[in-house]
Amino acid sequence: MLIVLCWNLSGQTSHVFAAKAAKFTPQQIVEKADRIRFPAEGFQVDIKVTTTGPDRDPEVKQYRVLSKGNDRTLLMTTAPAIDKGTILLMRDHDLWAFLPNLSQPVRLPLSQKLTGEVANGDLARANFTGDYEPTLLRTETIGKENYYLLELKASRRGVTYHRVLYWVNQANYRPFKAEFFTLSNRLIKTCHFRAYQNFGNTIRPTQLIMEDALHKEGRSVMDYSGMRLRKLPDKTFTKNYLKKLAR
């Protein structure tokens, strides 16, 4: 093992990085972390997003998500009442929005803001497997835990983020933190995975904290509840079915 000490301006050690061969490939590490975040089977979960910032009252929005794998998701707004009935459908690489006042679905980018610091893709296509090419940069010690630090680069156009730095616990493959970057390599926000609980028969993060990189006080907290496995037929993830739900 190669230990590298990084010094800050005061001469004190700020981080310790350990270059160590991983037991699994970078792709396998990302897959393991994805399976901790969400089941591979069909499932349902409720999400409450609370956004706060300077000089603004907290804003709360709630969603119900039906998902099957990494390429089929139905996102229904359940609160506030003024937004109720808005539905997003993600199938393969396409994202569609059905609004109560429009007769036809509208195609949306995954990177577009949904609410606060949360993009459409953060809820509709939250897994990293399949969308990014991962590289293991190093292992990093934070506190008493060791983490894999991976760099994820978009494998195609149209994904939510161009580049991601992703910290995954070396012992149990639980996600710890992710930093998201634009095409120009500008950090736009940081996500912290918190409140691990037994959730859907697996220990999962039940709270994600999204922090704005430019406005440090701006954040959105995503609280997950009521996760359960569901058998979801393919017809659930079609535009025709989406129209029936919106009636």
- Identify the CATH homologous superfamily: Lipoprotein localisation LolA/LolB/LppX
Largest sheet: 15 strands, antiparallel
Percent of residues in beta strands?
Answer: over 45%
Rounded Rg: 19 Å
List keywords for this structure.
10% helix; single chain; 3 helices; mainly beta; 247 residues; 15-stranded antiparallel sheet; outer membrane lipoprotein receptor (LolB), chain A; two-stranded antiparallel ribbon
Descriptive report:
- This protein has 247 residues and is mainly β.
- It is built from 3 helices and 17 strands.
- Strands 1-2-11-12-13-14-15-16-17-3-4-5-6-7-8 form a 15-stranded antiparallel β-sheet, with helices on both faces. A two-stranded antiparallel sheet has the order 9-10.
- The chain is globular and about 50 Å long.
- Residues 1-19 have low confidence and may be disordered.
